[in-house]
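Hey, weird one. I pasted the SET domain-containing protein sequence into the form twice and got a warning about non-standard characters only the second time. First submission, copied straight from the form history:
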Amino acid sequence: MVIHASSDIQKGDEIWHSYISPLTDFMDRKETFNCWKFKCDCKLCEIEANDKNYLKRSEIAKQFNEFAEANKESPHIVIVKGESVLKEIRETYDEKNEFKIQLISVHMILSGIYFDIDNVIKSIEYLEAAISLMDNLIKYAFNIAQITVNLAHCYLLLGNYPKVKEMVQKAFKFSFCIDMDHFKMCFPEIANDLP
Ligand SMILES: [Zn+2]
């Protein structure tokens, strides 16, 4: 395993590592951390612990996840439901909330469903929205290189080669790969389409 620091480390600094995906619900994260006998005091946990809308939002997201799981065969129904859930969740956040985890999560689910029904343009729209919601500290906890490669793949299907190039450059930067051969090894799904 290779670990890259996302910022300079000074002598004596505490080093952070996200044990589990930050998309995991706060209560489930807390429970997992309990098993490892620690209480997480990262910024995300602090914000969610003090957020009066957290429980309501968590319930909406959980119900949607179950709904999407139960209706895999009916993507159009899940999309209609997902659009209204997005609106509901958006209303539970105020503008100064930095980490809109549940909103990211629903965007990712909808992007995948749109991709599966060959609506690449909508899939891109939701992936781009998810990425812009991660434009803060949270991006270091996600595999943002993979998400950007997925975007490159979508643009490739549309034949938008300048965008493919832009996304690959972005993904390369996020991936911390040492060169293009290394990058192709990490992302074989797009390797054949790269120069
Ligand atoms: Zn935490």
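That's the output from the first submission. The warning seems to come from a hidden character in my clipboard, not from the data itself. DSSP finds ten helices and no strands in the chain.
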